[in-house]
Amino acid sequence: MELRSIILRNWKGYRRARVNIPSGGAVRNVVVLEGYNGAGKTSLLEAVQLCLYGRSSLPIIARARDSTRREASYDEFLERGLNVESRGRPERISIALEFSSQDRAFTLERIWHFSGSGRHRPQDEEVRISVGPDNELLELPEAAETPAFVRDFVARELLPRNLAPFFLLDGEHLDQMAVQDLEVQVKAAVEAVLGAPTLKAMAADLRDYARERRKQIPRGSDRATLALAEELASLEESERQMVAEVDALVEALQPLRSERDGIVRRIGSLHGDSYASFKALFEDRESVVRARESTQDELRRLLSGELALALSGSALRKRAIERIAAEERAERWESASAASRSKFGEFLEAVRHSGGQLEEELIASLREAWDKIWSERPEDCIAEVRFSHLGETDRRSVTQHLERLVSVRSDSIAELAREVAGADLRIEAIEREIGRQRGLDAESQALANTLNEVQEKIASAEADHRSRVAELEGLRARLSAKRAETDLLLTAAADAAPVLARARRADLYADLADRLIDTALPANLEGLSAVVTGAYCAMAHKSVVERVRIRLDGGVELLDADGADIRQRDASAGEHQIFALSIVSALADLAGGFPIIMDTPLARLDPLHRRNVLEHFAGRGSQLILLTHPAELGPVELGILGDRLAGTIRVGLQPEMTPPPSAAEGVA
Amino acid sequence: MPIPLLKSEAGRRALAELAAERELTPEALEALLDAIERHAGKLRRRSLFQEFDSILDGAGR
Questions:
Q1: Which residues pair with A647 in a beta bridge?
Q2: Which one of A138, A156, A157, A524 would you mutate to disrupt binding with B, by most B Cβ within 10 Å of its Cβ?
Q3: What ipTM describes this predicted complex?
Q4: pLDDT digit string, tens, across residues A604-636
Q5: For an interface test with B, which of A151, A358, A519, A521 has the most B Cβ atoms less than 10 Å from its Cβ?
Q6: Would you say the pTM of this structure is higher than 0.90?
């Protein structure tokens, strides 16, 4: 990637300027921007830093401090940077950088707006990115999201911010870099150059993903399924017990009925009446007694509990029944809709697996169509479920109860009472007829008493039987509803299972990424240390350093043959500078791609170091832009650069130093 | 495109060992990294997460 031009408006001494940088590829890779003190060389370096990183560039801009070394605020720094002639009216600073490589080209432009009083506010900043040969403007997200978008774009396409101090260098401060905050900067740069931030970003994204996917699963569904399964098992056990009790009651009835039939037969034979007519009377009596008991039970139930509810009015009960039905429909739809969403996810995956490309817009259209076909909200589906605490069984039970009450009225209660009284009269009449038939002799009387006892036992056993059968029916209705409820939950759980499995795997891969950084980073430092050693040995003319070691905390040691760190000894500013440049060179080799821009890199170096540095950096083959004072690059140095030099551009704010239009179209 | 950390011999070895310990696959991790790279700078997470869905299906235990 080469920097092809810097376009400035109202930035420091530049009212309007365009600095075109000649492209020489890997062979003629050095460009010199030459200017006297105050010509605006450092302003150009700052423009590049500011345009690339905006607010984040402040810590790496050496002059973003006042005379007391206090860090200036971003807004203050910009206000100081506004061209003097442009102050006093609403204006703007704009800096644009044009980059190109063999297959890519883009322009990054940052614009800062100022009020008439020369104030800049944080929100008055714009970024534009245009890509391709036609400078097609890239669509940026909303304002609040723009900084993160631009930061990621610059990191991906150009240079991560953590590496900027090693590529955009102010030579005046290189020696300070070697002794101040080096550990922090090297650590951040090493991590950046090895791709650790990408792994960290991946771990964070995977954890976000896992959290979001888990949110899609109805909360507590596992617990609910477990509770339902336990309830179901308990109900099934109750059913088994109740069926056994009902069977036992039926078995107990059989001998009683046989005994009763035997007594009836004997009484009939004593009086010469036919067994058939006597038996018919008994059966008639039993039938009336059962009907009376049933009516009596119903009457008791109505009078004891439901009369008030029954009298509440059919309209109110009807509305309650309709509401319950509507809520049941809504919950079924919600459940079906959740299952449909899950299926849609599977459908998308299947399409991708088969090589299909799905754009966001297409996915949105497909989702809309899918919802319309499979889970469109019915018109009669209410939005709010008030009685969400009611399970399906509860709903059914309440509905049945209310429906039963629809037929209950006050006159029906009187009717039931009349039926009981009528049954009593009918039983008396039948018993009189039975008494007439069985006679009044002692044997008949004894048989009659026995018959009554047996009959009472039968009636009691039959009542028990009826009661237990009714209970069994109720239990089976609840069982049926619970089974349906369980099926629904299990279906939802089955749909959720792949989602949960993916979320769990996402967490595992996030942990793997964290561990990988801890494990692989130290192992990679050896290789990086070797590259720094090579660069240092190529540039430094002292031979005491055997090797350079970069520690995990970013600390750098220059080790002599005895393993002692010579950085602990006094070193000159120039030696510090060589040391810093060797780290720059190594990181640049590993990161590759982005140009190195050095402002007055040679001023503090002796001639031999100058030669070494120029030879080393020019020989790397990637773009090297040197911002230099004319005295820095004499005939000897230019001779070293030789054919590597793609061009020299004069930078000047004074009219007589304005570069020619072919190289730098500057208007100060 | 693997990150430089994983291009090195030491990085590849560390990934293979750590992934095996966790019954995960190095290929899936690299696919996840590719997805991250492709979506870098894009703030809408939906398409990235959908890509995660696809990669994580069957990518280990």
A1: A31
A2: A524
A3: 0.96
A4: 788 888 888 888 888 888 899 999 988 888 888
A5: A519
A6: no
